[in-house]
Amino acid sequence: MSKQLRFRLTVPAPAPIGGLLDPRFQYVPAAKTDLRATFARIRAEQQQPKGKP
Are 18 and 25 in contact (CB under 8 A)? Predict the structure, then answer.
């Protein structure tokens, strides 16, 4: 009885977009953060259909 070998190819993860040096980044102090707006934005992003993986 021989065992079948299965190989799994790993796909490299894409590099993160943005960062502190990204010109789109805007620092907001914690005291000025609007959590309601932040959570509303996150909920809206989660409900959008995602593209092909």
Answer: yes
d(CA 23, CA 43): 25
Placement of tokens 């980044």 in the chain: 25
In total, the chain counts a number of residues equal to 53
pTM above 0.90, yes or no: no
Listed in sequence order, the DSSP H helices in 1-53 are 35-47
> Is residue 18 within 8 Å of 24, Cβ to Cβ?
yes
Q: Span 18-43, mean pLDDT?
A: 88
**Distance between CA 30 and CA 26 in Å, rounded?**
12
Between CA 20 and CA 23 the distance in angstroms is 8
